[in-house]
Design goal:
single chain; mainly alpha; elongated
Length: 127
């Protein structure tokens, strides 16, 4: 088990969560294009899944670090809690089903990532 600290400031943690919220907002807009169907929706789905993969990989890296005993420090404890919650949401996403159901699941996960970012960021003010 790794027991190391990659201490980040509260401001850095807030910046990462803000980045997730902005990216999720962009993905929600792309998801609306996919759900409307028509020309370009297939390419929009490909673009959406590629952009989601970037966020997913970032959250997975943070979660892997935490789950192996790493910590981001006391000032960023809210960030660790947010990452854990987001990771759990992501593990329930199954993209290997029909596109309509996958889009519904992805929409739910995006709402949860945004919600956890906002919820835990509000706790950063208590530090």
């Amino acid at each position: 088990m790794v027991n190391e600290a990659a201490v980040i400031s509260k401001e850095e943690a807030v910046e990462v969560l803000t980045h997730y919220m902005v990216r999720v907002g962009e993905l929600k807009q792309s998801l609306e294009v996919v759900e409307l169907g028509g020309d370009g929706s297939a390419q929009a789905w490909i673009d959406l899944t590629e952009k989601y993969a970037l966020i997913e990989n970032d959250i997975r890296k943070h979660h892997e670090y935490i789950s192996t005993g790493g910590t981001f420090g006391m000032k960023a404890a809210f960030f660790e809690a947010a990452i854990k919650d987001m990771y759990v949401s992501m593990t329930h996403l199954n993209m290997d089903i029909n596109a309509k159901d996958a889009a519904l699941q992805l929409g739910r996960v995006l709402v949860e990532i945004d919600g956890y970012s906002r919820f835990w960021m509000s706790h950063s003010n208590r530090i």
